[in-house]
């Protein structure tokens, strides 16, 4: 059985999935039902924070008089998610019983989560659930990486069973994922300071295909962490190429850098909202040229405009009409730069484009934050920078 709810995105019918938070709540509810009511479950029904009711298949792992474990197989729908198909497991036990380390890896319960609404319940992460090692996340250092909404869902799911069973005896809930530690290496968790496993995530309980919200949320988490340790400057790159150039050629310290992906505008807005004073953006011309037209989401499905931007600035620099047309017809920015290099116009056109980038970024930033932008290409290397980039650059040199 799998979820059969759909959304239409970009004229495509895409299947919804469920979050690790929903998986955990479903497994917890099934475990509580068997522990307290003695009934084995094959599926449970949950109402997610999004308001959607879902039926989730559950599978019994083990059961005895004091503890029961169930799992849910994560169904990510059509969302590209590394957790798709993995087991999300939950053990519910009477609190007087210690959950065996070799099965679920439960930690010192002084780090366990509690609930004001349900004081007889405690919650922790076991094997494959990451532990927080840096400040600035939703959880305290040392606690399991189980986010607020999933915690609420898990507590509520178990408490509902307790009410039906008329039981208020203390229970301990442990979420664990056998493959979590290995899968976490393919996520942002190591950079966020979450070690040893995955996070239990979800704000709506439902995974909608296309993970734009998840990417922006991760960017916000990284910026919030910088803010939490008193940092007021931020180094931003769209991706791996930008980071490699910043490190290898500009010799910048990347320990406090953030990847914006295509969401440069969102990253600027978040940096402002968290009080950053200095913003340095380093990236490939193929993405950053779009800023010259005020395009702050650089995904190709949102907008292109690279040929138009280069062609207009070449024309403004005096290029002949046939050269402007040739630039417009180029398939990528390196080819456009080849034409400009041949015509002796590369430097003047790049200065013009950078002036436009500066104008649009300044319009978004206002007087809230100082900024600099540095652009490069794989073929030509350094292409130029905005007027205040040198000042921002100096703040990032490794001493």
UniProtKB/TrEMBL annotation:
It comes from Wujia chipingensis. Keywords: Cobalamin biosynthesis, Methyltransferase, S-adenosyl-L-methionine, Transferase. This is Cobalt-precorrin-5B C(1)-methyltransferase. It comes from the Bacteria. One of its GO terms (biological process) is anaerobic cobalamin biosynthetic process. Its EC number is 2.1.1.195. GO terms for molecular function: methyltransferase activity. InterPro entries: CbiD, CbiD_sf. The keyword S-adenosyl-L-methionine applies. Pathway: Cofactor biosynthesis; adenosylcobalamin biosynthesis; cob(II)yrinate a,c-diamide from sirohydrochlorin (anaerobic route): step 6/10. It is an enzyme of class 2 (transferase). Belongs to the CbiD family. It catalyses: Co-precorrin-5B + S-adenosyl-L-methionine = Co-precorrin-6A + S-adenosyl-L-homocysteine.
């Amino acid at each position: 059985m799998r979820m059969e709810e759909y959304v239409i995105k970009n004229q495509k019918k895409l299947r919804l999935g469920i979050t690790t938070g929903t998986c955990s709540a479903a497994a917890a509810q099934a475990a509580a039902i068997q522990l307290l009511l003695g009934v084995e479950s094959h599926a449970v029904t949950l109402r997610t924070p999004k308001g959607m009711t879902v039926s989730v298949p559950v599978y019994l792992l083990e059961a005895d008089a004091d503890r029961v474990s169930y799992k849910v197989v994560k169904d990510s729908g059509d969302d590209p998610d590394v957790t798709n198909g993995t087991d999300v497991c939950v053990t519910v036990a009477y609190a007087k019983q210690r959950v065996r380390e070799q099965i679920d890896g439960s930690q010192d319960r002084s780090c366990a989560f509690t609930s004001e609404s349900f004081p007889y319940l405690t919650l922790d992460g076991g094997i494959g659930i990451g532990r927080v090692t840096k400040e600035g996340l939703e959880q305290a250092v040392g606690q399991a990486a189980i986010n607020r909404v999933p915690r609420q869902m898990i507590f509520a799911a178990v408490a509902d069973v307790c009410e039906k069973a008329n039981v208020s005896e203390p229970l301990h809930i442990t979420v664990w994922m056998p493959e979590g530690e290995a899968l976490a290496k393919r996520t942002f968790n190591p950079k966020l300071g979450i070690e040893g496993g995955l996070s239990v995530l979800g704000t709506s309980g439902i995974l909608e295909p296309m993970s734009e919200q998840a990417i922006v949320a991760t960017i916000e988490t990284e910026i919030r962490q910088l803010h939490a340790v008193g940092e007021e400057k931020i180094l931003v790159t769209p991706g791996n190429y930008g980071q490699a150039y910043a490190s290898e050629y500009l010799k910048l310290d990347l320990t406090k850098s953030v990847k914006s992906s295509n969401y440069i505008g969102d990253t600027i807005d978040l940096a402002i909202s968290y009080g950053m004073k200095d913003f340095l953006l380093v990236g490939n011309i193929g993405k950053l040229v779009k800023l010259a037209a005020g395009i702050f989401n650089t995904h190709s499905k949102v907008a292109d405009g690279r040929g138009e931007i280069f062609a207009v600035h070449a024309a403004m620099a005096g290029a002949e009409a046939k050269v402007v047309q040739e630039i417009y017809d180029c398939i990528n920015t390196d080819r456009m730069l080849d034409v400009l290099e041949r015509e002796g116009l590369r430097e003047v056109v790049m200065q013009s484009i950078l002036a436009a980038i500066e104008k649009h970024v300044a319009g978004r930033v206002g007087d809230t934050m100082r900024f600099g932008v540095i652009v490069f290409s794989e073929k030509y290397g350094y292409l130029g920078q905005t007027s205040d980039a040198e000042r921002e650059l100096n703040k990032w040199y490794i001493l």
